[in-house]
Amino acid sequence: MEITKPDFALFRDYLERVCGILLGDNKEYLVSSRLRSIMKEQGFTSLTELVKKLEMDSRLREKVVDAMTTNETLWFRDSHPFKILQDRLIPEICAKQKTLDIWCAAASTGQEPYSISMIIEEFKRSNPGKLTGEKIIGTDISSSALELAKNGVYDQLALGRGMPPDLLTRYFSKHENSWKVNANVAARIQYRMLNLLHSYSLLGRFDIVFCRNVLIYFSSDLKKDILTRIHGTLKPGGYLFLGASEALSGLPDLYEMVQCSPGIIYRRKG
User: Residue 153, CB half-sphere, CA atoms under 13 Å: how many?
Assistant: First the structure.
């Protein structure tokens, strides 16, 4: 699929407007590879035709956003956030309450929320009775990714991307050529479709928010807006996790940096 510079500019502006994702320059190849099958299926010969149709067809729009936003993800990605969660944050929160509310703001196909839920199970095994009410909200803009997350079924290839063998045998059951997340891990997670550009008011309040490896796709103004609104979802003293390549700057009145060696997290001010 040949993409002209004007076509690419039009689609790039459209994508940023509807979901905040900012495509870099010279990413025509990425758009072409991800949208080729949709373009062929719809009989479009240019991105201009596609964008015109997207303005009127919400189902097609969802399909295109899905194709452009669904990324491969890992279990226990970067490892240290989960160690910080298990060794520092859960004990700290449990010292003052028996409930725990966590939001995963880019749940994708479920690896991060299930990883967090397994960490909670590990803590509860070692500390019986200290935590009795836990809830994880996993949100994503991709409906197809969320369907996979809700099913909680993964093949060996997907599980090979970071899943420790002992946790696999403890928290999954084998079904022919795949593995299904056990009910005790899945039960505390609710999955919801959410565009981070839209309102968070119906999500609730959280002790911890994971917003990792998603802000890199947004402009600096949108990042600031999202982080400001995430602050509004955090309970007093609540914590924010960002991705390894992401940093929080320009919001000193809202967050304070907490060095964890290794790793950095951010505590809600105010």
Answer: 7
Cα–Cα distance list, 221 to 22, 87, 263, 267 (Å) = 11, 34, 25, 21
Confidence band (pLDDT; 50, 70, 90) for 21? confident
Q: Angle at Cα 214 formed by Cα 168 and Cα 246, nearest 5°?
A: 100
Q: Which of 172, 203, 166, 175 is nearest to 185 (CA)?
A: 172
Question: At 124, which helix (H) or strand (E)?
Answer: helix 111-126
> Is 105:214 a contact under the CB 8 Å cutoff?
yes
Query: Is 89:239 a contact under the CB 8 Å cutoff?
Result: yes
What is the chain's mean pLDDT, rounded?
Answer: 92
What Cα–Cα distance (Å) separates residue 67 from each residue in 37, 64, 176, 195? 10, 5, 29, 15
Its pTM stands at 0.88
216 strand-pairing partners: none
pLDDT in tens, 227-237: 999 999 999 99
